[in-house]
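Appendix B. One record, verbatim.
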Amino acid sequence: MFCPFCRHPDSRVVDSRLADDGSSIRRRRQCPECGRRFSTAETTSLSVIKRSGVAEPFSRGKVINGARKACQGRPVSEDDLALLAQEVEESVRARGVAEIDAHEVGLAILGPLQKLDQVAFLRFASVYQDFSSLEDFESAIAQLRTDSARAPNTPSGVQRPLGAH
């Protein structure tokens, strides 16, 4: 680890602590050359395997962008999207694998998006699950109605009945 102040190629770890609910480690380091201290963060890598077979690092930003498109014109804030992306990342990392298919990431988005906004969920699902007919939409809406009936204690403003504005 290069010192960010003097560029010395070595440093000594002074302290290590868990951060972000145990998903990363924060290390306090000291440079033996200039004596200054700095912090580093260490996280495990998570790669997403795309349909083409190419692997790329997991990105919360990509999750947010995809969900943002589905939520366009809906009463969903940037904070809501950030929390959704965090929930998706936590669920994907909880699987304990270093690589995951892009399809699995999409499936991980569906649950939190359904809780956030049902219309956005239908938009995302229609593209992601490749709806090809009205029956696909009708089936998804029927499932949403069933799920809503099972969860009557939802906080107001989180789930809205279908057709409500």
